[in-house]
Specification:
Elements (H helix, E strand, L loop, with lengths): L1 E2 L9 E2 L6 H4 L31 E2 L2 H4 L22 E5 L6 H11 L4 E6 L5 H12 L3 E6 L10 H22 L8 H10 L1 H10 L11 H11 L3 H40 L3 E4 L9 E5 L3 E5 L21 E7 L1 H15 L16 E3 L2 E7 L3 H23 L9 E6 L8 H12 L3 E6 L1 H4 L5 H7 L4 E4 L8 E7 L2 E7 L5 H5 L4 E6 L1 H12 L5 E2 L4 H4 L26 H11 L2
Parallel strand pairs: 5-6, 6-7, 13-14, 14-15
Antiparallel strand pairs: 1-3, 2-4, 4-10, 5-8, 8-9, 9-10, 11-12, 12-18, 13-16, 15-19, 16-17, 17-18
Length: about 575
Amino acid sequence: MAISRSSLRHPVQSNAANSASKAVDPHGHAETDRRAPSAKKAKPHSGRARAATDGFEVSAKKRGVTTRPTPAPLPTPAPLPSTPIETLYTDPFHQDLMGDRLAQLIGTAKSTLDGAFYEIADPRMLEAFCRAAKSGVTVRLVTDDNYFKADESKALLDRRVANLGKVHAFLFAARRLNAGAADAPAGAQKLLDGFDDVQKALDDAALVAPHVVELAGAKSFLQALAAGDFVTAAQARNRLLEVSGQVSSYLSEYRVRMLFRPGYDQLLAAGVGVHNDDSAKLSHDKYLIIDGKTTWVGSYNIQGLTSDSGDTEGAPSAADNAVVLPSASIAEVFAADFKQMFVDGKFHDQKTPSIEKETKVNGVGVTPYVGPTGTALANLTSDLGTLLSKMRVANAAGKPMSPQPKIRMAMFATSYNGTEAIFDMLKLLKREGADVQVTADSLGATRPSSGTKELAEAGIPVAVTSGDMMLHHKFLSINAGKMQLVWSGSANFTHPAFFENDESELRLDSAAEVKAYEAIYDSLKAHEKPPSGVTRRLLPDGTLAPSGGRPNPLTFDPNSIRTLDDARRYAELLET
């Protein structure tokens, strides 16, 4: 069965007073609000893009059942409050104008396009990059090795997937043998008879380090079981389970890259340069530099993930945001980071940290943090600490800050360990009287190490999106008198994001931007699980309540990754 993720739809919004958003919208509407957690296109504020059983589903199309009629076009999103810089967002209930806008920006390039994107599969962006390259624009891209490796051809990936599929099936059959059953020895012998063919398939897969697989443990298990030596078989079973887990993980990895590869090959064939990192750490940026003058930065993965269930089939998924910065100074900072990756081959902690200083862009104070760099975490914590000090002084004088300081956070994934400072500060601010509210993706919020669990337990309202949508935002806004700040970008609030991954984060000093991001946050409200239900859904073991949610991607049967959308869903879960 195919992997199913219950979410789906992608609306976007633009609120830049100086943006050319009307020209972007093919339907003649100004670019606006497009991201709200999941709802069906025909019912904007109800329903889930998918069934709550979000695990593995076989869609009607795959089962050969008559499919539903094509859904009516989605509405255009409502505009955000006006801002000095172009600000956009997406949600599953409106047209994906944000993706359209990015494709349009790609088309405006005259000389160069340098982009760093975690994954690249959206047909609009693939076509736009290819058109630009064929028109003479130099197009260079950096991506994560989960989805592309330059030294792997599509033919090699096909070969590895086919051969590892045979090994996986063999190991799975061995795992299913019941040592207590009368026919267990015969079943083990039957598998042993085909062992040489399985070993040959493994050899033909041509794996290279660190993907090294040894079948000796599985063979020992089968030999012992075939001989009726159940004690030795029991002892060898752990080795069987270990190698089975390895093969399952490798097969999933190769399947994902095999399914993403045609898109990357399309880029290469058009003359686009594509480089990847080679690390367990993530190349998780989502930025694009256009002609060295304008930079797109946000949380938006250009993967093109869409719904495959219900009347939302084919509609985009995920809620995201981005800004467009018309500043050569900002572009220069990102260009220096890009050069280290694309030209110098340096990723993650091999890179020299970027210069982190505020630049005025149309009156907005913009400070870029291109990582990994722990200073983003330190400075965000410092901002929260500054507000905490002001509130404590005001409270001690018997004159609490008015209006009440307001903090809004929308975050895909969080971890308390390693980023305790953020969550501890939010708890202290709540205690001093700040209006702190959080919304989180149901998958990331329910992991055992989730920072949002800490906030919920401290009495902070934490809303969890419904299982049918992916809240992929990564922003926090502070609205407190003269302190008007937004932190937003590609970084989840996790230790790897701040200290290991390649990430791009922005600090925006602007009351207008705060209002825009508060509007983005408010647009999620109709699609969240109510705060009163958080403690029931955030279980001690980190699993979702039976009422819905997404399974752990690492427990997937790799054979469930059959289509590019399956690969996209698997990839999106790996981000947590």
